[in-house]
Amino acid sequence: MNEILDKSYLSEQVISMVVSAPEIAARRKAGQFIVLMTAENGERIPLTIADENKERGAITIIFQIVGKTTACLAGMNVGERIYSILGPLGSPTEIENFGLTVCVGGGVGIGVVYPIAKALKEAGNRVISIIGARSKNILILEEEMREASDELLVATDDGSYGFHGFVSEVLQKLIDSGTRIDRVFAVGPVPMMRVICDVTRPHKIKTIVSLNPIMVDATGMCGACRVAVGGKTKFACVDGPEFDGHEVDFRLLATRLRMYEAEEKKAMEAHRCHCHG
Amino acid sequence: MDEKKKEKVPRQKMPEQEPQMRAKNFDEVPLGYTEELALLEAGRCLHCKKPFCVDGCPVDIDIPGFIKHILEKDYIAAARKIKETNSLPAVCGRVCPQEEQCEIKCVLGKKGEPVAIGRLERFVADYERTAGIVAIPDLPKPTGKKVAVVGAGPAGLTIAGDLVRRGHDVTIFEGLHKSGGVLIYGIPEFRLPKGIVDAEVEYLIRMGVRIETNMIIGRSKTIDELFAEGYHAIFLGVGAGAPVFMNIPGENLSGIYSANEYLTRSNLMKAYLFPEFDTPVARGRNVAVIGGGNVAMDSARTALRMGAENVYIVYRRTEVEMPARIEEVHHAKEEGIQFKLLTAPVEYIGDDNGWVKGMKCIQMELGEPDDSGRRRPVPIKGSEYLIDIDMAVVAIGTMANPIVPATTPGLTTNRWGYIVADEETGKTSREGVWAGGDIVTGSATVILAMGAAKKSARSIHEYLMSK
Ligand SMILES: Cc1cc2nc3c(=O)[nH]c(=O)nc-3n(C[C@H](O)[C@H](O)[C@H](O)COP(=O)(O)OP(=O)(O)OC[C@H]3O[C@@H](n4cnc5c(N)ncnc54)[C@H](O)[C@@H]3O)c2cc1C
Ligand code: SF4
Ligand code: FES
Q: B50-78 burial by CB neighbour count: b if 16+ within 10 A, else e?
């Protein structure tokens, strides 16, 4: 269990890992996540389950190197075992045949929206996906997303590939061109999700976002993950991670995500990756 | 010795770290009896024919019996005596509220001070552990019956021990990556060293209990799936782990924690050793802890050890109503925790970065008694004032986590979400499912959770053997 079976770089900073976890693979649904630790003295971090392979009894996780834990994980190789994995956690994505759905993924969020797109397609939806990144060389999962969707639109901030601009602008154009959208799923950096919600709100298109607050236990025990939705406090790990984006207080999410900025920097600086010895 | 002479020996104090010193470290505060002190204290016991102390003990420890072994200097026998009914003496000797259980009933307490039963319990348990002679009892022939225990807190650990000793095959499923429940994630190192909890868990494993960590029942697997895998009986000891907030404005500002989060970060994840351990926790300079129970005292004393200059306990009633153990309140005061009584927060104020910088409080007065029999605090109009803080810990209680009930058809809960279980047997509304500890009673004590587990163990054993 917990053995790394495959590891590949999707871009310089984003890694895809296939990890042996038969019981999780057997039951996970789109939208769910795991919590892992790389070592006994490590931190518990949540990561979305991007895919599963039931025959191999394995799950795929996709992560960007952003802090010490992800750096440690990136330093691990095929054959090594991850210290602990708990899951599947969170409520699965509500999947039904909505009609026309649009899946928007930004940056590493594409890894999160990918299983959702796949499940929507399997449920009979027409799926248009819009994915974006700062630049072409860090755009991930293009092929997989193309396969999971009926139509794929790409945007890059610097115009190095696809539409020159943000994914929100692509969505805006889609709406303006008269496409009748039944539901939008958006996952990415907080500002991106906020802007997507601003785009869909006037058109009353229900928009589901997947939130990534800081978590500890991820079982509803601590409240580290609290977010405000429709003026009420929710625990993202058990009540979410997906919520109606039009109700989410993105400002609160963004400030709470910055809570340990100083410590994260310190940990990263001190990081010599003696984390899985 | 005749009785009169015995009563002249005063109750022996337990040596402690000095308050100024200990407020800066996470080492255990009380240092435990020396052999000499233990003998002196044990000598005070009258070995009553009808020992009232035992009536006060939720697990019926033969108190005069183990004290007699101390006097014979056979400490290992004393430890075994306790372990006949209490599998976690090193834990209970430290965290049980003896002052309201066995010691309050001790006859010596009528005129003077009761025997320090808890300190003696701790002494023999520590003696046994450090002597390294923790023997495994002889186990009966395997019965071939499989039992799943959900949760590795005091309730789960106790029942696991009781059932392997009866020959059953026991597997514990624990959601976290480490066993111990509140003992490991909640109660701080300076009150209950984690090495002690680890040793107890190790002992169970040596007896043959299997522990699967990182298994959250209701998510990783359901109760129905456990039955399908061939378990004959299931015990739920999942605790009352969901935090309660006050739902006042500003409560989601950065720097405001539930006690569960704050203590989990510092104890389970060892944030006090950051960056040696990766998990961070805020180190507030002016910290408010809301609440008056053990959890509040533990949070306040942790904040102090993390370098806070001012730590306030903010409690809406008076010290008399505080649910915390007297000893813990006393320790907190000695260390310099400031008590703001008859005070309740009404709002938190944040700075430009969304970090808490102040807490608006209101003064209270005591009115008529409420359902709990305690006088109800009533706000005094216009008495609001502001306290400067940069961190707050909300320690006003916990509630049931709905994960197991929500995924277990036929399992009845009461209106607060706690699992309904028979008081004498621990049986729930589901055939083959028992429950005990905080998930049945709501947040209570280690020993009550253990007591409930013992009753369930007897009932499960009968059930398994009659099938
Ligand atoms: C900070 C603090 C200080 C305290 N101080 C004292 C004290 O001094 N004296 C005293 O007597 N009592 C004290 N208590 C109370 C005491 O700790 C509890 O009453 C006792 O731990 C309850 O035991 P339990 O086994 O029922 O539950 P818990 O100790 O809560 O254990 C439950 C376990 O189940 C696990 N779990 C939960 N859900 C699942 C699931 N779905 N699947 C798998 N595992 C699951 C949890 O992770 C946990 O490990 C304190 C409590 C706290 C929080
Ligand atoms: S009641 Fe007090 S004196 Fe009597 S047996 Fe118990 S501890 Fe000893
Ligand atoms: S992460 Fe602890 S409650 Fe959600």
A: ebbbbebbbbebbbbbbbbbbeeeebebb
